[in-house]
Specification:
Chain A: One of its GO terms (molecular function) is DNA binding. Chain A: Residues 1-44, 123-156 are annotated as: Disordered. Chain A: It is found in: Nucleus. Chain A: Keywords: DNA-binding, Nucleus, Transcription, Transcription regulation. The structure holds two protein chains of two kinds. Chain A is an all-alpha fold. Chain A has eight helices and no strands. Chain A has helices at residues 10-14, 42-62, 68-83, 89-101, 106-120, 127-134, 156-163, 172-200. Chain A is elongated, with a radius of gyration of 18 Å. Chain B is mainly alpha-helical. In chain B, helix 1 (20-41) packs across helix 2 (53-88). The radius of gyration of chain B is 22 Å and the shape is elongated. Classes of the chains: A mainly alpha, B mainly alpha. Chains A and B meet through helix 2, helix 3, helix 7 and helix 8 of A and helix 1, helix 2 and helix 3 of B.
Chain lengths: 208, 104
């Protein structure tokens, strides 16, 4: 499917549809079976490859050469977030960061913020989203103080809250669960990019 | 690196409204299970087995932070490499077939 058609995804990015209530992000045409869970399953890898390759094709045709490394890095994280479960806090944080950095219209961003807030309110709400709803800040929203440390929680948990997207203000158990899911998808993204680099490298022994 | 204790209070109370003993026991079981899950994801988990429970928790978190930072660095490096390769490479039929296999 992807080899034949080369349609630009600008229209899709201008008006991204709200994700369906079920956790399977079944948007691609070629993807028929929904991923069972947000784990390292083949269908999750397929969704990851689909989103990232589509972004790479768009970057290859539209982005000027000096800006490509940064744009590819951003596309890597947004592809990760799209391929994963939309109910995860780290995916919502990454997509919100992505939307804010692209300068999405106020109506769109407010709608997305409302959707994110409604979804996050089912579990523990991170203060970052609440702060973003009040005032529109820069790429890095003001991080409020971490919650009171739980009994037996190491001091290293604060460092983990800083490097996991959406981790600021998260409770310890949720932080551990989000971190495990984030590491899984981050590792899958690195493996995908490494396989693409091996594919495009000039000294390719298999092409001989 | 902030190693001091900061007991700042958030406006909203935690979602755990159960009794303290039940909440502690459930949380401890969940924490140990989540820490084991995290440790299984780390590449150096096989080399470091053993140690005290609290020390193990701090070490798992430290290794997780290092692992996430290394993965972030790899994404940065691979992004630069992919940008260079996209500028120079032309997609051949074999490469298109591999890309198609990635999507199928």
């Amino acid at each position: 499917m992807a080899g034949g058609k080369r349609t630009t995804a600008r229209h899709q990015h201008n008006h991204p549809p709200p994700p369906p209530p079920n956790p399977s992000p079944n948007r691609g045409r070629g993807v028929a079976d929904p991923p069972p869970a947000s784990d390292d399953s083949p269908s999750s890898k397929r969704m990851l490859a689909f989103h990232f390759l589509r972004a790479l094709a768009r970057i290859h045709s539209t982005t000027p050469a000096p800006r490509r490394p940064r744009t590819i890095r951003r596309a890597a994280y947004s592809s990760m977030a799209r391929a994963a479960s939309p109910r995860r806090a780290w995916t919502q944080a990454l997509l919100l960061r992505r939307a804010r950095s692209r300068g999405v219209a106020v109506v769109g961003s407010s709608r997305r913020a409302v959707l994110l807030r409604r979804r996050v309110s089912a579990s523990a709400p991170p203060p970052m989203l609440r702060a973003s709803a009040g005032a529109t800040s820069a790429a890095a929203p003001p991080v409020q103080g971490p919650p009171p440390r739980q009994a037996g929680e190491p001091a290293r948990a604060d460092a983990l809250r800083r490097i996991v997207p959406g981790g600021a203000g998260m409770e310890y158990c949720s932080l551990l669960d989000e971190t495990a899911d984030y590491v899984l998808h981050l590792r899958a993204q690195v493996q995908l990019m490494q396989s693409l680099v091996d594919l495009f490298s000039p000294p390719n022994p298999t092409s001989n | 690196m902030s190693s001091g204790r900061r007991s700042s209070r958030t406006r909203r109370a935690g979602s755990s409204s159960l009794s303290s003993s039940t909440s502690r026991s459930i949380s401890e079981d969940q924490i140990s299970e989540l820490l084991s899950k995290l440790q299984a994801l780390l590449p150096e988990s096989q080399a470091r087995n053993g140690g005290a429970h609290r020390g193990s928790a701090a070490r798992v978190l430290q290794d997780t932070c290092s692992y996430i930072r290394s993965l972030h660095q790899e994404v940065d490096n691979l992004s630069e490499t992919l940008a260079e390769l996209l500028a120079s490479a032309d997609v051949t039929s074999d490469q298109a077939a591999v890309i198609r296999s990635l999507l199928m």
